[in-house]
Amino acid sequence: MSNHLEGNKEIWIVGAGPMAMEHARVAIHLGISPIIIGRGMVSANEFEKKMSIPVFIGGVSKFLEKRKPSRNTHIIIATGSEVLMPNLLLFKGLEFNSILVEKPAAISIVELLSNEEELREISKKIFVAYNRRYYPSVRKAIEYIDKDGGLQSMHFEFTEWSHKIGDINKAHGVKENWFFANSTHVIDLAFYLAGAPHEMVAFHKQGNLDWHKNSFYAGAGITENDVLFSYEANWESAGSWSIILKTSKRKLILNPLETLKTMERGSIIVEKCDIKSGNNLKEGLLEMHLDFLRNKNILSNIRDHISMSNHVFRVINGG
Length: 319
Known about the structure:
The chain is of the alpha/beta class. The chain has eleven helices and 15 strands.
């Protein structure tokens, strides 16, 4: 994918935390000096110290009093999940090129669905930053799938490391909605590869976590592309994220998702593919930016994300 960009591109990055820094590094790599819109002094000072880029302090509302976006403005919202939706709604009624909002675009499925009507007038220009779609490992897996004549079946796991997450200090509601904030990264990728579910049965069970309702998940179904799938997650045992894809000729293993291993039919030998991103940026982020600034062929539109959240994520998590 060429890094050449046509025309004048202006990038605003809302947020000054770690993910905002990653987006800023990509913008600079592309020759664009991003405008950083922060909220508090602490994160802004840290950002300026590490990135040598000035940060506007005071939040989006205050910034918009001084300056409005234009047709050339591409906005990236990279804040904590608890303020993604409030920041997104501030651009309603304004002119801009497009918005890339960090996944999952809201703190909860309920918040996302309750704002569907509010977002309607700008929904065509909002995209959700599921960057794992752009991993070199994923693009290589798609090459194999196309070469082999299509995907036949899939299994994925979204076990979360609850023993680590429980001690993390997060804003109220973030850990309680960890499935939506984090597990949907792998679920989105799985159904991006296999197609959206056509039929599905989903099971879930409450565990011993005091910060998340469910700990155990299992389910199966068939996608719109006629791919049989199953999934499992146990947040109170060993495990991690993984996706296993099967064609008529091979098994493709994404575990961890940044890597790809293959096993050919009739063999038990697992071979690791030699995949290199070729840059020092966060995996998949450069390719996602290029897609966002140009064709938006791979990105999930907010309307598709709302539909997936309502009909798939909500069902898997038990409503």
